[in-house]
Every structure is written in C-alpha cells, then in structure tokens.
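dumping this here so i dont lose it again. seq + smiles for flavin-adenine dinucleotide
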Amino acid sequence: MNREFDVLIVGSGAAGLTAALNLAETRKVGVIAKGALGEGASGLAQGGIAAVLEEGDSFEAHVKDTMVAGAGLNDRAVVEHVVGAAPRAIERLIALGVPFAEEGGALHLTREGGHSHRRIVHVADATGWAVQQALEGAAARHKNITLIPDMAAIDLISGRHAESFSTSGAIHGLYAYNRKKKRVETLTARATVLATGGAGRAYLYSTAPRGATGDGIAMAWRAGCRISNMEFMQFHPTCLYNLQVKNFLITEAVRGEGGLLTNPRTGERFMPAYDKRAELAPRDIVARAIDNEIKRDGLDFVWLDISGKDAEFVRGHFPNIYEKLLGLGIDITREPIPVVPAQHYTCGGVMVDLCGRTDAPGLYAAGEVTQSGLHGANRLASNSLLECLVFGEAAARDINEHWDGLAPPPAIRGWDESRVADSDEEVVIQQIWGEIRRFMWNFVGIVRTTKRLERAKRRVDMLRQEVHDYYAHFRVTPDLIELRNLLEVADLIIRSALSRHESRGLHYTLDFPETLDEACDTVLVP
Ligand SMILES: Cc1cc2nc3c(=O)[nH]c(=O)nc-3n(C[C@H](O)[C@H](O)[C@H](O)COP(=O)(O)OP(=O)(O)OC[C@H]3O[C@@H](n4cnc5c(N)ncnc54)[C@H](O)[C@@H]3O)c2cc1C
C-alpha cells in the first residue's frame, strides 16, 4: 500500500504536532505515531516550560542559565534564538487553549533548579498532558492533517529505493509497519520531519515512555545524517525501584523536605561523605553518589527515607507519591522508599540547523530526537518542551519557504518480503533487548570508565551480527524494529562516550576527570 502526503511527520508529541499545525494551512500533512497518539514523553512532562515573561527577568539571564547548565558546550546563537522565541511559543499554546496556571491576572511562574528567576509556566504538575491534549485536539480538527496512530516507521526512503535509482541522498518518505493491518506500507512526501523523541529506553531504568527507543536517531544515521553528543544522557537521581512499575519518579522535593538517602547494606546515611550539601546537592552529584554506592556494594537500590518526618506532613506534601506507593505496599510515613537513578533525557541526537534541517535534503528533525545546540552537555530543566515548540515551528516555516526546491517523490519500490519468514523465536528479541538495557546501565551509565565502555562496545558488536541475521531472515514486527534501533543507538552512545577524553556536564569518566579548556561537540559521521 502506498500513501502520499505533502509533508510526513514521524511523531505526535509536542515537536511533531507543532510542526503539523504550522504546515496545515498550506500543506496536506500526515502525522504517524507508533502507538497511541499521546504516548510520547510530551504527555508525561510535569514541571513546565521555560520562558522570560516577567519584569526583572531577562533573555540574557535565561541564556546564561542555559549555558551554565550546558557546561559551555551550547551553541550560543541557538540558545539566544530559542530563548528569544519562547514568549511567542507560549502565546501560541495559550491561543490553542492550554490553561496555564495564573495568579492575579498574570501567568503563574515557578522556579526550577538551575534557573536564576521564576520563569516556568505550568498547568499544575501535569503541564505536558495539557499541552499534548491541546495540540492533539487542534490537529484532529484540522482538515489538512491526517493523524495515523499504530504506524511504526522502519526506515527512511531515499533515491536508492526509487524505481529510477539515484544516490542524491534526498529523503522521500519512509517505510512503516501498520500494526493494525500487520503489513509494511510506503508513505511518501516532499518533506519528512523526524519528531520521534529520545532514546532513554536504551537503559534499564528510565523515566522515558516505552517507545523511546531512539528510532529517529537510528533511521537518520542509516540515511547518512551526522549524529552528535550522544554521550550526554541526563539521569534523574530518584526513580522508584520496583519490578512492576519501572518509571515512577520520586520528586526531588522529597529530599528538599528532609528525606535521607541510606545504604541498605550498612544502614548508614551516605550523602554527607560525597558533598557538604548532602541530600540537597545538585541532581548529577546525588545521582553519581547513589550510583557509586550501588556499584561498590553490588546493591539493587538505595533507600530514600522520609519516615522520620511527621506522617501528616508527609501525606500533605506528597499526596500522589503517598497514594501510589501505598498501592504498591509501601507506606512512606513508616518505611523507606527503594530508589535508583534513572535515565531522564537524551541531550544528543540528529544534528540540525536553526531551521531544523538535517544533512539529508528533504529531511527535517525537531525535539528530543535532535542535537540542535541548545542543551550542550546538560539540559536546563524545562527547556526541552520549549525546544520542541520552537524547532517544530522553524521546520514548518523552512519547508514552506523552500517548497519549490523540495523534490516531489519519485516512484518508490515496495517493501520486499519475498525472502523472509515469520519469526519462530520471539524470545530472542526479549533476551537481546534485556541484555542491551542491562549492560548500558552497568557500563555506560552515570559514572564511566574506558574499560567499562570498551566492555559494552564488545557486547554491542557481538549482538549486532545476531540482530542483523534476525532482521534479514524474519518479517519485521514492532519489537524487532525497536530492537534494531536500540542497538544502533547504544552503539552511538558508547562510541561518543569513548571519544570524549574529559568529564563535562553529564559525561563523567574516572579515566578523564578534568574538563578541557576547549568545548567541542562529539560528531559521528556515517
Ligand atoms: C517524566 C518526564 C518529565 C518531563 N518533564 C519535563 C518538563 O517539565 N519540562 C520540559 O521541558 N521537559 C520535560 N520532559 C522532557 C520532555 O517531555 C521531552 O523532551 C519532550 O516532550 C519530547 O517531545 P518530542 O515531541 O520530541 O517527543 P515525544 O513527545 O516523546 O514524542 C515522540 C513521538 O514519536 C513517535 N515515534 C517514535 N518512534 C516512532 C516510529 N518508529 N514510528 C512512528 N512514530 C514514532 C512516538 O509514538 C511519539 O508520538 C520530561 C520528560 C519525562 C520523561
């Protein structure tokens, strides 16, 4: 089956839907999502969106805070552009009906770690959900937007897939697996926008949604695009350790209100030995300390204990956490919470310019899938939804401005299944998936060494052959598509980490603990 759109967007989160809405007045747009439309990270965002909206705050201050967090690796021109575009992006969301919290007739702004001023607009503690609902509603109402859930992109289509073979490198759409009809379809367009989110699921513990398997990064890499800064993975220090519930965050406010971190083996509080601010040290220091305790003593988790506080106080301050954990048999007013750090955000990705253009003609990217130059070596809280809004709009504008220069798709060869059979061993996929996530967690996690990274690299190389054989012999399934991408992305993360001979921002290695004077991006060229 073949479907043609003017523009094809892969991903229905904040970045993809923003691009779609900004194109739909002039173009027929198809938006695909590999599961339900609202299943990306956008709907999970709790905190809010950063923008300079109040007297006393300034663009310079937001730029500075972003650059300090990014450890000097940010591209200043990009930071200035995004920060300057933020107020307008918030206005667009308000026009779509996002009910941002207000106080005294003005937007209520909160403050988050790393921000020198109150500048976070929010909808209680469920900002992402409100933004996602507004964008999805507007897209669903637009006659020029076709929303296609349950359609998993497999690979980008280039001139090599055309009946009139060409090596121009231009992208004309993609092959995708229709999960309902259980068949591969050919979707073509003049421009394709990758808005597939991050790659957090390469790690055993992650707050990212189930589908964050780096599909867009892997597809762009296979299509010849450069990938950058993949070593910078942001970890949240305290995620619930539970075999059933894998991505429940325990807010940092629990430590802020007196929660103590203890080692289950010794029963001792350990943070004072790492930092004089103890449990109130910055996120990355706490994450590293927990990681060290876990690795040194072979633990599964550490305890976060707020039971020393008055029970009423705990229930009043953390009603959601209290209820959720009580449902899992943990009464946090009486007992400690088992926690581990968890992957939280992918700073690196597909290299794009200020217009969201990638290296391949006709291929754009926006949001967490990209390395735009905004975040540098560490993301400043609440800058990521902002990045989706600004770059989604920029990509749409560039597509419209350069429409006549974008090549109409040629006739494309259909997906060839003549030499593959149905898989007889799905267990292989689950096994390899688990292996990748475990060695990425143990060897390519918060604290790295060259030896551990090399160990991980050897495992990736070994599994690559197995996955390649499997992919070559069996019909694609959603799990196989994700596994292939996860392995590709794991390889990109390890190679990036191995090539950085310093510690900077989120990349911390015991073999190179110093930060070099010059800040350089890691750029992998296919
Ligand atoms: C728990 C949590 C809290 C957060 N809190 C905040 C916050 O307060 N503020 C902030 O700024 N940021 C926050 N973030 C980060 C922010 O939510 C994300 O960076 C942002 O939402 C990413 O949006 P996106 O549009 O790039 O991708 P996503 O919203 O993740 O959407 C990805 C889309 O791509 C689709 N997709 C992926 N692969 C394929 C494929 N192969 N084929 C078809 N479709 C595909 C998915 O189905 C999905 O529709 C948080 C993240 C998490 C996990």
